[in-house]
Design goal:
The chain is α+β, with helices and mostly antiparallel strands and 374 residues long. Helices cover 30% and strands 24% of the residues. Strand 1 (12-15), helix 1 (19-30) and strand 2 form a beta-alpha-beta unit. Helix 1 runs parallel beside helix 5 (157-170), helix 1 (19-30) runs parallel beside helix 9 (340-357) and helix 2 (64-84) crosses helix 9 (340-357). The two termini are 29 Å apart.
């Protein structure tokens, strides 16, 4: 959507400088808005840094409109890489997936067939072909069917956020890191007017964008809004390697593995996430992840656990994004979603356009905040 030439908002407070907040703020700033990023920590170091960071639509088939939104964001990533440069954050090397039991394998191939019908690029190989063509360090049965999604990618979220926020600041945006939002003030008509910060300052603003990730429900509460969120923590472990033995993101049985730059690998597993509720020690969760990864990539046996974090996921109650204006509070917008890494570029572009032009894009029709009443 082309952003129109309407009067610019005087100042926009973007609460949360993760991948969604950075994307919205960068798009607003480059179109002339005065942006202030507010983050309780440092840009990109919250949920964005503790994500599997896999850019995809193959895992988003529950609703066609959601799939389409993710496909649009994959295209937006390619455009973003051309605009800001791809170095250090963009790794478009595809994604591999395979299973180890007949039921899971049948589901995998059924999903691949559905995606192909939706014109999503899918390729199928045997395990032996995957080792020969893509990933020689893997251990997997030679005849096992493996699905390859060539248009998928992984992103170094912290580097991407740093690039976007850095460019916005260079264009005149302000960054208030290490600062929490304590209050949001409104006029008599209910419209946004001020943001009070934990450092004692108070900012005059016209617009607030709630991109606070796991804290989004708390921020919504500051304007009297109930934003229901799921409680689904996940554990991510970084493994330090002298030489990274894999080249792309992959879903192996029981474990997800991807590179994380030149000297580490990221591990995640929904099966291990399920143990968080039992109170299992994060160090033990990391050991379980490492053990699962060694079964798939034996070279990781010589690696070391470098960092582990149990992080809350920013998931609205129905599992889908909450993006756009809340009409009952003029000037208040939400950008809250699971899969923020995949959706960052498209949400950033569409929400900035909505803020600046007042026009609501149909691509967000199923994901409007008003489906959660005040």
């Amino acid at each position: 959507m082309r952003i129109g030439s309407v009067k610019r908002p005087e100042r926009v407070a973007v609460i949360g400088a993760g991948v969604l907040g950075a994307g919205v703020g960068w798009n607003l700033s480059r179109h002339g808005a005065k942006v202030v990023f507010i983050d309780a920590g440092r840009p990109g170091e919250g949920a964005t840094n503790w994500s599997f960071s896999w850019v995809n639509a193959s895992n988003k088939t529950a609703r066609k409109s959601y799939f389409d939104l993710n496909v649009a964001s994959m295209a937006a990533y390619r455009e973003l890489a051309r605009t800001i440069g791809p170095d250090s954050w963009w790794y478009p090397h595809g994604h591999l997936r395979w299973a180890d039991d007949p039921a899971a394998e049948a589901k995998l191939l059924e999903t691949a067939e559905l995606l192909a019908d939706w014109d999503y690029r899918v390729e199928e190989y045997t395990g032996a072909e995957v080792r020969r063509r893509f990933e020689p360090a893997l251990t997997l049965p030679g005849e096992a069917p493996v699905v390859f999604y060539p248009d998928e990618a992984w992103v170094h979220g912290r580097h991407l956020v740093g690039r976007l926020v850095g460019q916005a600041v260079a264009s005149g945006a302000d960054l208030r890191s290490g600062t929490e939002v304590r209050g949001i003030g409104t006029d008599a008509d209910g419209s946004i007017r001020t943001v009070a910060l934990s450092d004692g300052s108070c900012l005059d603003v016209d617009i607030v964008v709630n991109a606070a990730g796991p804290s989004a429900s708390h921020v919504a509460g500051l304007i009297g809004r109930h934003l229901p969120m799921r409680q689904e923590p996940g554990v991510v472990t970084r493994i330090g390697c002298d030489q990274v033995p894999v080249h792309r993101a992959m879903h192996a049985p029981h474990i997800e593995i991807r590179p994380d730059g030149d000297a580490s690998v990221v591990l995640h597993s929904r099966e291990i996430d399920a143990l968080i509720d039992t109170g299992e020690d994060p160090a033990e969760l990391a050991r379980l992840l490492h053990a699962s990864a060694r079964h798939v990539v034996p070279e990781l046996g010589n690696s070391r656990i470098a960092q582990t974090r149990v992080a809350d996921r920013p998931i609205p109650a129905d599992g889908f994004p909450s993006v756009g204006a809340v009409p009952s509070v003029p000037g208040y917008y939400e950008a809250v979603s699971h899969s923020g890494i995949t959706l960052g570029p498209v949400i950033g572009r569409l929400l900035a356009s909505e803020i600046l032009s007042g026009k609501r894009d149909e691509m967000l029709a199923d994901f409007r905040p008003e489906r959660f009443p005040l």
